Please model this.
Amino acid sequence: MLVLGLETSCDETAAALVHDGRHVRASVIASQAHLHAEYGGVVPELASRAHLERLTPTIRAALDHAAVTLDHVDAVAVTARPGLIGPLLVGVAAAKALAWSLNRPLVGVHHVHAHLAAGLLDPPPDRHEPDLFPALGLVVSGGHTALYRLDSPHAPALLGSTIDDALGEAYDKVATMLGLPYPGGPHLDRLASHPDARPDRYDLPISRLAAGSLDLSLSGLKTAALYALRGVPDRAGRFPRTLADVPDTDRRDLAAAFQRAAVAAIMLKLRRAFDAHPGVRALFVGGGVAANSRLRAQLPALTDSLGVRLILPPMKYCLDNAAMIAALGHDLLATGLRHGLELSPSPTGAD
Ligand code: KG4
Ligand code: ZN
Model:
């Protein structure tokens, strides 16, 4: 079964063709990051217009790459939630038009759940998928930070999520404070990884929340980083220091301290989740922050110590893409789920 996946929930226009939900025949991504860089964040109206311009050529490119035509497409899967509503509408309208005109089934997919399905793409020949479940799932991206239990690939149950900033968002905001270009996560990671960086110079808080909580809070860490960098503001909100007053070595040490505290918070929640869910066999990780060097270094140590498989997809499937949408769409179709032309996108993750 060949599924066409479409993804337009944020600032990536993506189309993919995936065979039997696992084997990627084509995955094309048109990034708009440069359009939004000068604003320091995604501008929804610009994103909607850019999706409109790019979606048809992106679908064509995916068909060409897979050397198939629309007639070969057996079903259409599209991100229906969560995301920016204008961008979502563009993808959902296109998916409905395609499914209707081709007379093929349509399925709307939850973007964050699809980040977990990314780990199932292009499986190694020796993988026996049922051995991976039950599993835990961690999504760490610019828009989402959430922990799940997965009893099957298509049924994630939410265990906890951030109550304020997503991990990537916190990275990007602290990177902006440090004068790094947007999106700053990878730049902050590089600065923090400098061999002479001394994270111990700053004592930043590690989010714990209530005993046993699997939620996460990152805004306190972000504010602590700001105060460590610029000093505590006076009652008028003026900071004692500007960024120009902060020596490069202090910026580097602060980046390292932030990275240490942020990754420690994630690892703490993972340990709690494993304690609360004995018997899980794998940890699925997805989302753009899965590129982070410190997180990638620490995850295998944790899963090895627990005897759990780590499913960390290659970067091209960690970042937003449509192959993961087609993968989850395939599994949902296999359960009998179909959406009609009344499918409407939602900005939130809830049904
Ligand atoms: O999954 P993604 O492409 O988009 C969303 O669905 O949000 O994730 C993008 C996020 C950005 O916040 C970016 O700064 C962050 O992933 N990111 C990183 C790294 N690489 C990308 N954050 C920390 N360290 C990295 N190496
Ligand atoms: Zn995403």
